[in-house]
Write a structure and sequence with these properties.
The protein is an alpha/beta fold and 432 residues long. It has 2 domains: 3-292, Mur-like, catalytic domain (UDP-N-acetylmuramoyl-L-alanine:D-glutamate ligase, 3-Layer(aba) Sandwich), CATH 3.40.1190.10; 300-431, Mur ligase, C-terminal domain (Protein-Tyrosine Phosphatase, Chain A), CATH 3.90.190.20. It contains 14 helices and 17 strands. The strands form 3 sheets. An 8-stranded mixed β-sheet has the order 4-3-2-5-1-6-7-8, with helices on both faces. Strands 12-13-17-14-15-16 form a 6-stranded mixed β-sheet. Helix 7 links the parallel strand 7 (194-196) and strand 8. The protein is globular.
Length: 432
């Protein structure tokens, strides 16, 4: 199986859609010899920030001299982005081999008369197999959807991290904020430390689950804290303090945005918990990991004329934070948005959180079958100027034109939009 064959096979599994549950993945991994048990893991869930937090933890482990894998989803451009070791993507050859090996066991399942695994289940099993095959010591695993019934929830981690809880994927997680929180809390395992930034009325749900599991719980704002100290050289400056682990001054985080102050605190606290068992993790490796971390498409600034910000804000909470960061970085500046949203998202909530009356908005369709028609999205927008574009590339060209050389373009609304647009932008820069 070559890379194209692997993609064709994965695409064939799309017909099974999203089916939550652990029976299929457990049987598949059992047939594979349970590769997920051959290294230590850290499990990360949350509505927003889980990708950035996952990347920070992985970077800290790498800077500690630890061979560490990272599994995330979805990808922006290529499936290989989902599986990394110390920041380096799996190669297409390695990816094909991992998927091919996993397919052999899927075929055994089907011969047994079992239900076929979904695409995400096969990808998860392939990632676990790959990490075991190359001998990683740790793997930082990001939840795909929810937590309780997510395919990744077969691991027994060293630490469970729950970034926050907001209304996203509510249709698959019970329909209420409380039920979403209960799904996120589903990654809590007996006796395993839990680190969270969940607040307000949702916090008791996490506390109750941790107490029931006899799991030590560390809450942001109660047991550990962080403080924003501005931006320097496109790095977020953060001070971290913990009641048990002391204070770290002026840490430089290579991810911009006020939300990264909180995300970095979760990553630091995770590293400090791990440090008790692994002395390779030090204050220096924590600082170096935060300074080196890369996570494309999350308030990513691309210098040029105009300046472009790419951010995968795809729910109201993420859109609200993106707007706060834009206002913080570009005070009193109007923004030209290239906006595309999936139809199953809270379109009105995203638009109301993100767009201001002085803005200009070009609406297009994300590169997904789930894309909302641009006309539907544009009808929800009140701004200085709103128009629809037939394609992402045409929309990007129009946004550049409307912004002018000294303006600001923000590409947002869906990862399926920003991944496609990001590839266009960087390909153009290579040709200059």
């Amino acid at each position: 199986m070559n890379y194209e064959d692997a993609l064709t096979y994965l695409d064939s599994l799309n017909k099974f859609g999203i089916r939550l549950g652990l029976d299929r993945i457990k049987r598949l991994l059992e047939l594979m010899g349970n590769p997920e048990q051959k290294y230590r893991t850290i499990h990360v869930t949350g509505t927003n920030g889980k990708g950035s937090t996952t990347a920070m933890i992985n970077a800290i482990l790498g800077c500690s001299g630890i061979k560490a894998g990272m599994y995330t989803s979805p990808h922006l451009v290529d499936y290989t982005e989902r599986i990394r070791v110390n920041g380096c993507e799996i190669t297409q050859v390695e990816f094909s081999q991992a998927v091919s090996s996993t397919k052999q066991y899927v075929d055994i399942m089907l011969a047994e008369g079992a239900e076929s695994p979904t695409q995400f289940e096969v990808l998860t099993a392939a990632a676990f197999y790959y990490f075991a095959s190359i001998g990683v010591e740790y793997a930082v695993i990001e939840v795909g959807l929810g937590g309780l019934l997510d395919s990744t929830n077969v691991i027994i981690p060293e630490v469970a991290v729950i970034t926050n809880v907001a209304m996203d994927h509510a249709d698959r997680c019970g329909g209420t904020l409380s039920s979403v929180a209960q799904h996120k809390a589903g990654i809590i395992k007996p006796g395993i430390p839990v680190i969270t930034a969940v607040a307000n009325e949702i916090q008791p749900i996490i506390e109750e689950k941790a107490q029931a599991m006899k799991s030590p719980l560390y809450i942001y704002g109660k047991h550990f804290f962080s403080e924003d100290q501005g931006v320097s050289d496109y790095k977020q400056i953060v001070v971290f303090e913990s009641e048990n682990y002391g204070k770290m001054e002026r840490l430089k985080v290579n991810l911009l945005g006020l939300h990264q102050v909180e995300n970095s605190a979760l990553a630091i606290m995770t590293a400090m918990i791990l440090q008790a068992k692994d002395l390779r993790i030090t204050s220096d490796s924590i600082a170096n990991g935060l300074a080196d971390v890369a996570w494309p498409g999350r308030f990513e600034i691309i210098e040029g004329t105009p300046k472009v910000i790419i951010d995968g804000a795809h729910n109201p909470a993420g859109a609200k934070m993106l707007r706060l960061n834009l206002d913080n970085m570009f005070t009193d500046r109007s923004i030209v948005f290239l906006l595309g949203i999936l139809q199953d998202k809270d379109i009105t909530g995203i638009v109301e959180s993100l767009i201001k009356p002085q803005d200009i908005v070009v609406v297009t369709s994300p590169d997904s079958e789930r894309a909302a028609p641009p006309e539907m999205v544009s009808n929800t927008i009140s701004a200085r100027w709103v128009e629809v574009s037939a394609s992402i590339e045409e929309g990007l060209n129009r946004a550049y034109q409307l912004a002018g050389d000294g303006g600001i373009v923000c590409v947002a609304g869906s990862l399926y939009l920003i991944g496609f647009a990001r590839r266009i932008i960087y390909n153009r820069q290579k040709k200059v």
